[in-house]
Specification:
Length: 403
Amino acid sequence: MEARGPHDRLTAPGLRAGTPAEAGLDAAELDLLVRDVRGLTQGADPWCAGAVVLAGRGPVVAVREAAGWAVRYAAYDEGNGRGAELPDPGGAAVPGGAVKVPMRTGTRFDLASLTKLFTAMVAVQQAERGALDLDRPAAAYVPAFGAAGKAAVTVRQLLTHTSGLRPELPFYEREDSADRYAPLWEEEPVTPPGTAHLYSDLNLIALQAVLEQVAGRRLDALVRDGVTGPLGMTATGFGPLARVDDVAATEDQRRPWAKLDRGMLRGEVHDENAYALGGVAGHAGLFSTAGDLAVLCRTLLDGGTYGGERVLAAESAAALLDPPGLGFGTDQPWFMGELAGRGAAGHTGFTGTSLVLDRATDTFLVLLATTVHPRRRPADSRPRAAAATRLARAVRAAEPGES
């Protein structure tokens, strides 16, 4: 039996572990889902060093499995283009006593862009309270943002990635700037605002500046007090983390493949811009577990409430998930597989994280993986799509009339 850590339990009372039959899911398809995820961690050059998969329907979590290693490599070996393997637990340790760390269901992961979902939820909360109008220009709240042709960009355009801003800027090159957002103020849209969809971290960094201005508090406090605290998501928070023994490692971050030289990262944000912004950023920086993210999924599927706590009005929860989504992506087969098509919503993260929730079938899937350990590689979301397809087929096989 897998050793258990402090974050391995499911957060009560809105979720419970149960059988596939109790969840209304086909056991054979879920067995294949687990088999597939385990296979992703195997071999000399796997898709990921380790992973945790969680899937459920309604309040029942029918799959919650860990595979591989939370820490597998000591470093990336440029000479042979592979990771330098750590010894297995119980074997001879390398100097300093390091050995591989098994993946557990409660392992915390660097969420990367899944952080954007929490920022979006905070924005909708501020809109509910009347502090923020999603259809006003962001410059109405942060005048400096309006420079360089951005005066008309609305908060909603930031949330829907239709602001025209390019994907990113090198904030990490200007860590000594007196104004940490200065590169963003100087940036011009590459397409006219409101005319095209262009996914951009800059949108959520700009939204962070807006939220901190209207609320008078830092984003980490807004997320804690508005989302994770009320929902009991005790394993979720921004880094750097004081304790790392239950955290999955990310990258041996070095040039030329990375943008900074920081070595093997564990408990510090992987994203270089989030690091330059102090570890708390609108686009990246949160750490969490599969169990906590299941709470997030269940909250949104239940219209903004979980375990008797309401963090969003039902119409606000719907606005986040309804196409085109506010912060959330909708019906995207490239990572949602056969769950896409009837209003599924979710997101991915560069470090290997993803989640999908589907209101049509009341299902949710969390797949957390260490695809950048020991170093980043070209993106490949086919395993994410395949996992989501397994869950979709588990619904259809359990309910032959399901279309």
